[in-house]
Amino acid sequence: MEASYRKVAPAIPTPIAQRITLYPAEDRFFGPRPAVLVLPGGGFRELPPHEGEGYARWLSGLGIHAFVLSYRLLPDRFPAPLEDARAGLDHIRNGDHGLDVGRVGVIGSSAGGQLAGLLMTGRVLSVEEDVADPPRPDFAILAYALADLDLLPPSVVENLLGDLLPIKDELSPAKHLDASVCPAFVWATAQDPPGLPNALEWTRALAAAAVPVELHVYPGGSHGIGLADGVEYGGEPHKFIAREPHTASWTTACEAWLRREGVLADRQ
């Protein structure tokens, strides 16, 4: 039986720069700066501001240019959001942003973490045409990020993929890791049913591929908690915003990891 999907040439979306919001590194930092492409979660149905602007303001304070991407959501399906993520990474590396093009990373939460993982692998989907040498990040921060679609309920996967269900494994980034993948910082909470097993799978798969990985699991907080600081962004409260002081320390752990990986210098 023939699969019910077809190869598609890359769409021509709205120019990617119009869907990126830049939060530059704070003025006290000098010289070429590292940069991060910020991919909020939201199950491909929304883009929660606390996983976009919230992360961006934290990164800016570390001296990192943060580029928040509003990638395409449902009813647009893959490869549309992946095309946007690649275009966002290219925009960062090829633009005149005063940054160090050798220190360009990605942060992704939940569904945004799936996109981050697909960027990490550099794989081209079988439904794509005319995609050569896709851009890849130099480091990755994976916040309760989707690693493997087999870890989600089948009904959720069916609703997400529609007629793309035959390429489910291609869209499970943890199944396609090798030693060329960038180092990753992975975190989740013990109270997050989808996030925890995916974080553990990320760690297992990265370690099996001999990729440097650091995992942090915190006791408190549900899926989608973001910075865990209880702060609202975008002018509206979000159902996943909560304050969990211990879980909020993931940013401190991540900053230390960024320094160890050479993304941030000791004094800047």
What does this protein look like?
The protein is an alpha/beta fold and 268 residues long. It has a single domain (17-260), classed as Alpha/Beta hydrolase fold, catalytic domain (Rossmann fold, 3-Layer(aba) Sandwich). Helices cover 25% and strands 16% of the residues. It has a seven-stranded mixed β-sheet with strand order 1-3-2-4-5-6-7, sandwiched between helices. Mean pLDDT is 91; it is low at 1-12.
Summary of the model, kept short:
This protein is an alpha/beta fold and 268 residues long. The protein has helices at residues 53-61, 80-94, 111-121, 154-161, 195-208, 250-260; strands at residues 20-23, 33-39, 65-69, 99-109, 140-143, 184-189, 213-218. The protein has a single domain (17-260), classed as Alpha/Beta hydrolase fold, catalytic domain (Rossmann fold, 3-Layer(aba) Sandwich), CATH 3.40.50.1820.
